[in-house]
Structures are given as C-alpha cells and as structure tokens.
TrEMBL record:
Positions contributing to heme binding: C246
Source organism (scientific name): Adineta steineri
Signal peptide (UniProt feature, chain positions): none
GO molecular function: heme binding; iron ion binding; monooxygenase activity; oxidoreductase activity, acting on paired donors, with incorporation or reduction of molecular oxygen
Protein name according to UniProt: Uncharacterized protein
Keywords for the protein's UniProt record, in alphabetical order: Heme, Iron, Metal-binding, Monooxygenase, Oxidoreductase
Cofactor(s) listed: heme
Family, similarity comment: Belongs to the cytochrome P450 family.
Pfam families registered for this protein in UniProt: p450
Length: 300
C-alpha cells in the first residue's frame, strides 16, 4: 500500500505542477499519469473500505487507550441524529492519514538531521531535556512540555528551513494589483496561486541570516513568555494561513515535541558519513536519499 500511495502522490504532484489537475478539461484526458492516479485511487479506496467495514463489524479495535479517529467518525452524529456516510468517513480518514503522517514524519527527519549536524544545537537541546524531564518518567505532562522552550524553538526553526508541506494553492476571489508602480502585476479573480513557503522562509528581506539555522530567533521573552514578533504576519507559513490552514497544527507541534524529548532523552544519534542530503518535494519536503544514522541507547 505504501508503494501505491507513493506513486499516487508522485502523480498528483506531477499533474498539479503542470496545472493539469487545475484545468477540468485537461484533468479528464487519459494522459500525464492519469492511469496511475485512477488505479491508485481505486486500490486505496478498497483498502480503506475494508478497514471501515472491519471496524463496523468488530473485526478490528482501536490500538489506543480510548476510541481512535475511526471510532469517532463512526459514532459521531449531527444535530439531526445523522451519521457520516461511508464515503464521508473514507474521505475524512484518508485526509487525516495523508495530511498528518508524512508531514510530521518528515519534520522529525529534518529535526534529527539538524541535531546530528549542529553540535551546539544538539547540546542545548539535550541539556534542556535532561534538566526538565526526570529519567524514570512514564508520561510527559503539560508542565514538562511547556518548559521545553529550546525544543519548541528548534521545531519552529526546522519548519522555517524545511517546511514539510512547502507548496499550497489559494484561489484569488477578489481582483488584486500587487508590485510597484513601474512593475505592477494584476491578479484576476479565479487565478490559482502557488505559495512556496520553502522560498518565503528563506527570503533575506524577511529573515536576517536566512540560511543559518538559528533557533534562538524563536526563543520566547523570559519576562512575558511571548513569542518574538515576525517582521510580517505572513512571513512564516509552515501550516498555511486563513480559514483552510492546518487543522492539526497544535497536535503536530505537541507530537513533535514529545517525540523529540523522548528520543533525545533515551538515545544518541550519529549521522552515518558520506550521505548526500538533498531536499526533494514530493508533496511533502523529504530527503531525496533518506537519512541514515547510528542510534544507540544513551547511558543515563
Ligand atoms: C509538521 C506537520 C504538519 C505540517 C507542516 C502541516 C501543514 C499543512 C498545510 C501547509 C496545510 C494547508 C494545505 C493547503 O491549504 O493546501 C495543511 C492542511 C491540513 N492539515 Fe496539516 N500539517 C501538519 C500536520 C498535520 C496533522 C498531524 C494533521 C492531523 C492530525 C493535519 C491535518 C490537516 C488537515 C485535515 C488539513 C486540511 C485542512 C482544510 O483544508 O481545512 N496536519 N497542513
């Protein structure tokens, strides 16, 4: 299934970047990886149908302590007592899996790439975690997590240099004219605009020393605990913005902080030398050839 998903994501990206998916007439023609998209979509739909049907008939259970997302989707009713249809459950479940797994997974890869290549960052991170989190703890509490300010800053800075979802599209609903008097650009209603946060986050007019990994730019004010103000409200868009921004952003940041804290507390990571680390966009921003590390248990 992973192989099919990867192929479909690849086809979606190929078609979106060539504007094929955005033009209804072109999107129906049997070219440009359309067969991969159609066959893949069918395979994935069957796979998810089976998961839903197994859960409905009690052949599978939530693997967490309480109900999982699928249980919630199956049991939710609206004000009129109507449940979600199978199609709606399938769409929501798939959206959450697709939007929530590769993005956070790739964020963790980039965080560990930074830690393994930036000694000072790694030391500061480990020191903070060792200070805040007792060795024998089973579960992190909110109190522990809110004290991990360096971890928070490292996550923010990693998402600046390596935003895991670097491309998103917005459609213009009011005509706009942007640019300078000599160099004006008119954007008519209906224009699809690709926003590239990878480039946005590296703009030297918005970020001092834009290519340098400097987590201290995100450290909160020690007196009032406020985050530093951005030079422009839309200078930083790892989770997009507006009414269709990432619904899972708070969950993702919390999940990333917990994983970072537990892994750094328990393990030692060393980059295997001689690797080419090249960022590649396949819907999400990943390392083209993976990231190999030696992981050993820390003596604590
Ligand atoms: C580091 C992790 C994550 C990043 C960088 C990220 C980024 C984004 C971005 C940029 C969008 C906007 C896409 C667009 O407008 O086309 C988005 C949408 C979305 N994300 Fe995330 N995301 C992350 C994690 C998650 C998680 C963990 C979940 C779910 C548990 C999630 C669920 C969603 C959903 C459902 C949408 C669509 C919202 C809508 O259209 O109204 N994301 N995400």
């Amino acid at each position: 299934m992973c192989h099919v998903l990867a192929e479909v994501l690849d086809a979606v990206l190929y078609r979106s970047l060539r504007m094929i998916n955005q033009i209804p007439f072109l999107s129906k023609l049997p070219f440009w990886k359309k067969n991969i998209l159609d066959n893949g979509a069918e395979t994935i739909a069957k796979f998810v149908d089976k998961i839903i049907s197994d859960r409905r008939h009690g052949h599978s259970n939530s693997m967490s302590d309480g109900p999982d997302l699928l249980d919630l989707l199956l049991s939710t009713v609206d004000n009129e007592g109507e449940s979600f249809t199978n199609q709606e459950i399938k769409t929501h479940a798939l959206t959450f899996v697709l939007a929530g797994s590769e993005t956070t997974g790739n964020l963790m890869v980039w965080i560990f790439y930074i830690l393994m290549t930036h000694d000072q960052v790694s030391k500061a991170c480990q020191q903070e975690i060792d200070q805040v989190i007792p060795n024998n703890i089973d579960e992190l509490t909110n109190e522990h997590l809110s004290k991990l300010v360096i971890c928070e800053a490292i996550i923010n800075e990693t998402l600046r240099l390596y935003p895991s979802a670097p491309l998103f599209i917005r459609r213009c609903i009011h005509e706009h004219t942007i640019g300078t008097e000599e160099n004006q650009l008119n954007i008519p209603v209906g224009t699809d605009i690709f926003i590239n946060s990878y480039i946005l986050h590296r703009r030297s007019d918005l970020w001092p020393r834009p290519l340098e990994f400097d987590y201290t730019r995100w450290l909160r004010d020690t007196k009032n605990d406020l985050k530093p103000k951005l030079v422009h409200p839309f200078a930083y868009l790892p989770f997009a913005a507006g009414s269709r921004n990432c619904i899972g952003q708070n969950f993702a940041l919390l999940e990333a902080k917990i994983m970072l804290a537990m892994l750094v507390q328990q393990c030692h990571f060393k980059l295997i030398p001689g690797q080419k680390i090249i960022p590649e966009v396949k819907i999400t921003l990943r390392t083209k050839y993976g990231l190999l590390a030696n992981i050993t248990k820390r003596q604590i």
